[in-house]
Design goal:
heterodimer; A: 216 residues; mainly alpha; MetI-like fold; globular; B: 219 residues; 9 helices; 81% helix; flat; cell membrane (chain A); ArtM/GltK/GlnP/TcyL/YhdX-like (chain A); transport (chain A); AA_ABC_transptr_permease_3TM (chain A); membrane (chain A)
Chain lengths: 216, 219
């Protein structure tokens, strides 16, 4: 393992950088898109509700790889030339947004209906009540599940290896196939993923416990 | 456009896709069964809190859960031969999926058992059941019901995740579709439509079944 780190350290670090960068970008945009569809689903409008449901159900039931390859193969063919990193990040964003929509929707619905009614009867409009009363409370509830989504994102970003996204998995596999020391290369890559995901997952577990205690 | 769809969905191509779908289903079903058994054992060990042993098992579960599945595929198929252990593609895929998913399932199963109130166990023991009888007849049946949604959504993930095994050239649905659109760029969009539809039908049917199961048990 030391050999691999010594001879390929900088490549691995740049791969790790790409992995984190892609995960952060995808998290940011999937939060926006996911929250939008979550709000669609709780709105009184039947049409928007249906659009939200269809989006979530369709995207959630298609593999991430299919979504990512779609953007990697189809966009350059018909629209514009984009590289693997961009295509991969778009795929990840779309895929994750459906899961975030589910999480945020559950959060909004767990804020009791009385909150909305009280806000409305105090003279707020529907949107004011949503913006100042319901959403802030909902977001507090969904922070631990969103953290878990971020962990999934870091792990899922390894699909960039399929589309030459130069992420940690791609770089690691490249090192494995050129050095022939596959076991050690993959072990190093595994440790690097764990350095990001393990502390996060323990922290999220701690947050969940704290929130649960607060609720009880 | 219409024509390329008609050509892409020729009988030969459709048969080829269905063959891939069959491998996807076959590998998924075997992995689901194996990882349910293994995950159940691991989850139970973690629940039991046996000194040191449970903590070590728990740590290993956490390690696996926090790794990307693709890495586990690579490790099993390209890594293990370095240690002198060469496994064929299909068993490799099943092994990698089972290792990863059983770690996921272990957490779901442990959480499910823990969610049943302690009073249930105490009540059963007070009525003369042994620990294992209480587990078997009182705790597990209740935990099972609560776990259904989480279990089924994990099974759906597993089915979707089999597509990642294209990276070790498992001849499943995604791999076969790639072969078809690799021959003719006009087939790209028809193939992605077919992929989306096929995966959606399998996964959505499973989630509908889970909802039906929940309702039936609840009533």
């Amino acid at each position: 393992m030391i050999n691999i780190i010594a001879s390929h350290g900088s490549e691995l670090l740049s791969g790790l950088g790409q992995t984190v960068l892609c995960s952060v970008i995808a998290l940011f945009f999937s939060l926006i898109i996911g929250s939008m569809f979550a709000i669609f689903e709780v709105l009184p409008s039947k049409v928007l509700h249906t659009i939200g449901r269809i989006y979530v159900e369709v995207v959630r039931n298609i593999p991430l790889l299919v979504v990512t390859m779609f953007f990697y193969i189809v966009i350059p063919q018909y629209v514009a030339s984009i590289n693997g990193f961009v295509a991969g990040t778009i795929g990840l964003t779309i895929y994750t947004s459906a899961f975030i929509a589910e999480t945020v929707r559950a959060g909004i619905q767990s804020v009791s209906g009385g909150q909305m009614e009280a806000a409305r009867s105090n003279g707020m409009t529907y949107w004011q009540a949503m913006r100042y009363i319901v959403l802030p409370q909902a977001f507090k509830i969904v922070i631990p599940p969103l953290g878990n989504q971020f962990i999934n994102l870091v792990k899922n970003s390894s699909v960039l290896a399929f589309v030459a996204g130069f992420d940690l998995m791609y770089v690691g596999n490249d090192i494995a196939s050129t050095s022939f020391d596959t076991i050690n290369s993959y072990l190093v890559v595994g440790v690097m993923y764990l350095i990001i995901t393990m502390p996060l997952s323990y922290y999220m577990r701690y947050l969940e416990k704290r929130t649960n205690r607060g609720a009880a | 456009m219409m024509k390329s769809f008609m050509d892409a969905y020729s009988a030969v191509n459709l048969m080829f896709l269905l063959k891939g779908l069959w491998i996807t289903v076959e590998v998924s079903v075997i992995s689901i069964i194996l990882s349910y058994i293994l995950g159940g054992i691991l989850g139970f060990i973690r629940y039991m809190r046996i000194k040191y042993f449970s903590a070590i098992v728990g740590f290993i579960i956490d390690l696996i859960r926090n790794l990307p599945l693709i890495l586990i595929f690579f490790f099993v198929y390209f890594g293990l031969p370095n240690l002198g252990l060469r496994i064929e593609i299909i068993p490799s895929s099943i092994l990698a999926l089972t290792v990863f998913e059983s770690a996921m399932l272990a957490e779901i199963i442990r959480g499910g058992i823990e969610s049943i109130s302690k009073g249930q166990m105490e009540g059963a023991r007070a009525n003369g059941l042994t620990y294992w009888q209480a587990m078997r007849y009182i705790i597990l049946p209740q935990a099972q019901v609560r776990m259904i949604p989480a279990l089924v959504s994990q099974f759906i993930s597993l089915i979707k995740d089999t597509s990642l095994a294209t990276i070790i050239m498992l001849p499943e649905l995604m791999y076969h579709a790639q072969i078809i659109y690799g021959q003719n760029t006009n087939y790209i969009i028809p193939m992605f439509v077919a992929l989306a539809v096929m995966y959606f039908i399998v996964c959505y049917a499973l989630s509908l079944f889970s909802r039906y199961l929940e309702k039936r048990i609840a009533s």
